[in-house]
Amino acid sequence: MTEKKRRGRPRQAEVARLAGVSQTTVSLVLGGNKQGIVIHEDTRRRVLEAARTLGYVPDPAARRLAAAQNNLLGVFSFTATFPTDPAHSYYPFLVGVEREAAARGFDLVLFTGSSTGGAGAEAPGALERVRLADGCLLFGRHVPTGPLRRLVEDGFPLVHVGRRDEVEGLTWVGADYVAASAEVVRHLVAAGHRRVVLVREDDDAPASTDREAGFRQGLAAAAGGEGAGGDQGVEGDQGAGGEKGVEGAVVRLRAPAEELTADWVVAQRAAGVTAFVAEETDTGAAWRALRGAVARAGLRAPDEVSLALLGSPPPDLPADGEATGFDIPRAELGAAAVRALTDLLAGRRPGGTLARCAFRPGSTTGPPPTATT
């Protein structure tokens, strides 16, 4: 009977049979016996000879798994669609992540099963899959705190891209939206605007609350007080002003495309509002709705009304002038997140890190018109 031709790489079990020892002994010998267990020299030689005879080569993936180090960094998104489209606001972050990971000798694992979004990540065990990697980067406006807290408490290395304070011990890197938003407001006030309205989505995502905090700080600095700007509904009253006559209000919207109408814009202009500010989000919903409402009202920016964006506009919108606002250093933040994650893997505990956003003058703001209509 002819010997059956072997398929695939030889296994440790075959080495053990040929050497006449246990597979545990083979693993110890071929792994360098880091445990320091006493192995007879003759036994060690038989194992090595059997390995040479069979052409045994250790599986590098198995060796890294045994050492609990795969040189793999995970990327998990809580958004509804994994950000692999260049038009997606998260895409530049991934560019920075990939470059820095490659420079540090790590491969990436994209957990595309997270494409069901934040609710899907709440499913039992959904987030646990990230343990396949050595550590993981997280993206998303809304995160499931329960599963995330369990991973942090277990000591699994995690870094969230964006400020997150609700899970104690979670490392994050983010953009300084407070300072950047305040700078946009100061720019409007310096141009002569005295009544400004911020439109934002009605949720408590840290990125949104930070932008609103910056908006209020900018008004407060202009008014010379500790706080300025009130809340309003689409039909509500303007907020209180400061001692220099600077007034502002915040409008929270559940459905921006439905709630921001041309009539509302006209009413705001009649009340003396000369500048509108919108927040940037994954969808750009507030900015899209504001632009549409202003256009339907027959107003032109910046001649008849000024428009500013706390961030950058969605790439798919037609370029009819660069929006006044600020640029988020997305690629740099992605790289910083990788550095923070590798620090965690090395046993260091970096804290939260905020990066500065560059002000963008744009062409959608200017001095207020001499008279409102």
Automatic annotation (TrEMBL):
Question: Which one Pfam family would you cite for this protein?
Answer: LacI
Q: Segment Disordered: which positions?
A: 222-243
The protein's UniProt keywords, in alphabetical order, are:
DNA-binding, Repressor, Transcription, Transcription regulation
Q: List the biased-composition ranges (Gly residues).
A: 224-243
Concerning InterPro entries, the annotation shows: HTH_LacI, LacI/GalR-like_sensor, Lambda_DNA-bd_dom_sf, Peripla_BP_I
Q: Residue limits of the HTH lacI-type domain?
A: 10-67
Which Gene3D superfamilies does the UniProt record give? 3.40.50.2300, lambda repressor-like DNA-binding domains
Name the source's superkingdom.
Bacteria
Q: Which GO terms describe its molecular function?
A: DNA binding
Q: Does the keyword DNA damage apply?
A: no
According to UniProt, the name of this protein is LacI family DNA-binding transcriptional regulator
Organism of origin:
Streptomyces chisholmiae
User: What is this organism's lineage?
Assistant: Bacteria, Bacillati, Actinomycetota, Actinomycetes, Kitasatosporales
